[in-house]
């Protein structure tokens, strides 16, 4: 079985809380008026960070990459801009991770169009090849320790895409599990594996035939 390795790691909620605490410690005594969540990935991080900072005003903007799990994404674009005027406000833009840096760069540009006094950025993880370095981040990811990070809020989607990514031909369950282990360093519990296969079958992504599973 030939494949290009894309190592992955499932992120725990304990790690999420620790990263949020690190960001808040780095922010220190600075007072932000509001938080901008870069959705989808920044939606949960923004809520957690805003909770730590006691910020009630959270606004959203959406950037999208036209790619799939563990594959190079295309260019990012803002698909749902900020609708709130931010004149004179100190704004913290929050996302989960910088990769190419395109999403956070677009988010900064879109936020500045709303006339804030200050714009700062925060991400849980910063990949050091990104074209933008956030003002605050919890951990820096280098080429040596890069993995595809499977965040709790994206786990179902990532599991589905990673399983489909293994299925070049009809395969048994055991062959898919072996592929996930060798290609992605990923072990999925029997319950989550069954749930994922059931969802994929129900949504016409795969079919079962004589003990084999194949993509539709």
Can you tell me about this structure?
- This protein is α/β, with parallel strands linked by helices and 216 residues long.
- The protein is 34% helix and 27% strand.
- A six-stranded mixed sheet has the order 4-3-2-5-6-7, sandwiched between helices. It has a two-stranded parallel ribbon with strand order 1-8. The chain has a two-stranded antiparallel ribbon with strand order 9-10.
- It is elongated.
- The relative contact order is 0.16.
- The mean pLDDT is 92.
Secondary-structure blueprint of this entry?
Layout: E1 8-10, H1 13-27, E2 34-39, H2 43-53, E3 58-65, E4 76-80, E5 90-98, H3 102-112, E6 118-127, E7 136-141, E8 148-150, H4 155-166, H5 173-184, H6 190-202, E9 206-209, E10 212-215
Helix pairs in contact: 1-2
């Amino acid at each position: 079985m030939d494949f290009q390795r894309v190592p992955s790691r499932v992120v725990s909620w304990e790690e999420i809380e620790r990263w949020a605490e690190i960001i808040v410690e780095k922010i220190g005594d600075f007072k932000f008026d509001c938080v901008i969540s870069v959705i989808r990935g920044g939606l949960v991080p923004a809520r957690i960070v805003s909770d730590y900072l006691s910020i009630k005003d959270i606004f959203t903007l959406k950037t999208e990459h036209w790619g799939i799990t563990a594959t190079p994404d295309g260019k990012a674009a803002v698909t749902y801009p900020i609708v709130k005027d931010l004149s004179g406000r100190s704004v913290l833009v929050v996302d989960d991770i910088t990769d190419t840096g395109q999403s956070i760069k677009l988010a900064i540009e879109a936020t500045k169009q709303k006339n804030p006094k200050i714009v700062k950025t925060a991400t849980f993880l910063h990949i050091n090849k990104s074209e933008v370095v956030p003002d605050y981040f919890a951990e820096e990811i280098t080429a040596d320790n890069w993995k595809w990070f499977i965040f709790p809020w994206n786990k179902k989607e990532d599991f589905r895409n990673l399983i489909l990514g293994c299925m070049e031909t009809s395969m048994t369950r055991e062959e898919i599990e072996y592929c996930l282990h060798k290609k992605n360093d990923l072990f999925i519990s029997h319950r989550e594996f069954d749930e994922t296969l059931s969802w994929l079958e129900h949504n016409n992504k795969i079919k079962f035939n004589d003990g084999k599973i194949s993509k539709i």
